[in-house]
C-alpha cells in the first residue's frame, strides 16, 4: 500500500480513468464507487431509498407543483425540504446509534451473559430467527419503514403545519 511504497498504480490509474469517464457521462462517480464497493446487503437499502425519493419527486411534480413553473433544480430544492428527507435522515442516524449499541453489547465482556440470554430466547421463541426464512422477519419492518417514508414524503402523514399569515 501507501506506507510500504508498493501501491498498485495500474489499478489506481484505472480507477481514475473510470471516474473521469463516469463524470463525463453525467454519472456521479462517488455514488457509483459506493455502489461497487459496498456489499449488496448494504447497497440495496440505499437503492430502495433512491427509488422512493424518485417516486415521491415524481408525485410532487405531477400533483403538488403542477401549477408552479419550476425548473428541475427548483423541484429538487423543494424536495430536499420535505419531511421525507428529514425522516430518512432520522433512519440513518437511528441505524448508526443502533449499530453503536450493538457494538457495545458485543464488545463489553460483562454483557456476554445478557447477549447469550437474548440469543437463546430468540432461538426458542422465534421461528424466523435462524434457518432458511430468517431474512423474512427483517423484510416486514423494512417494508413498513419504506411505506412510512413514502407517505411522509408525499405529506400524507406527519405533514408540516402551515402557519396562517
Strand content: under 5%
- Describe the biggest sheet? none
Counting DSSP H or I runs of 4 or more residues, the number of helices is 7
If you compute it from the alpha carbons, what radius of gyration comes out, rounded to the nearest whole angstrom? 22 Å
Head-to-tail CA distance between termini: 62 Å
Order of helices and strands: HHHHHHH
Low-confidence stretches: none
Q: Number of folding domains?
A: 2
Output the structural class: mainly alpha
Number of strands: 0
Percent helix? over 70%
Choose one word for the global shape. Answer: flat
How confident is the prediction overall: mean pLDDT? 85
Describe this structure in words.
There is one protein chain. The protein has 165 residues and is mainly alpha-helical. The protein has 2 domains: 37 residues; 114 residues, no CATH class. Helix content is 72%, strand content 0%. The chain has 7 helices and no strands. The longest helix has 25 residues. The radius of gyration is 22 Å and the shape is flat. The protein starts with 8 loop residues before the first helix and ends in a 12-residue tail after the last helix. The model has no long low-confidence stretch (mean pLDDT 85).
Characteristics of this structure?
flat, 2 domains, mainly alpha, 165 residues
Amino acid at each position: 500500500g501507501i506506507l510500504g511504497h508498493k501501491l498498485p498504480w495500474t489499478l489506481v490509474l484505472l480507477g481514475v480513468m473510470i471516474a473521469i469517464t463516469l463524470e463525463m457521462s453525467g454519472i456521479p462517480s462517488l455514488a457509483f464507487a459506493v455502489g461497487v464497493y459496498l456489499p449488496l446487503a448494504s447497497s440495496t437499502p440505499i437503492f430502495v431509498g433512491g427509488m422512493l425519493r424518485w417516486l415521491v419527486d415524481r408525485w410532487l411534480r405531477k400533483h403538488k407543483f403542477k401549477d408552479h413553473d419550476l425548473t428541475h433544480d427548483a423541484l429538487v430544492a423543494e424536495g430536499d425540504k420535505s419531511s421525507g428527507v428529514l425522516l430518512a435522515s432520522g433512519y440513518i442516524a437511528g441505524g448508526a446509534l443502533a449499530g453503536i449499541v450493538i457494538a457495545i453489547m458485543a464488545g463489553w465482556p460483562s454483557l456476554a451473559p445478557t447477549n447469550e440470554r437474548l440469543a437463546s430466547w430468540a432461538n426458542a421463541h422465534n421461528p424466523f430467527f435462524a434457518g432458511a426464512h430468517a431474512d423474512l422477519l427483517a423484510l416486514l419492518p423494512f417494508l413498513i419503514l419504506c411505506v412510512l417514508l413514502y407517505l411522509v414524503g408525499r405529506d400524507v402523514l406527519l405533514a408540516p403545519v402551515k402557519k396562517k399569515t
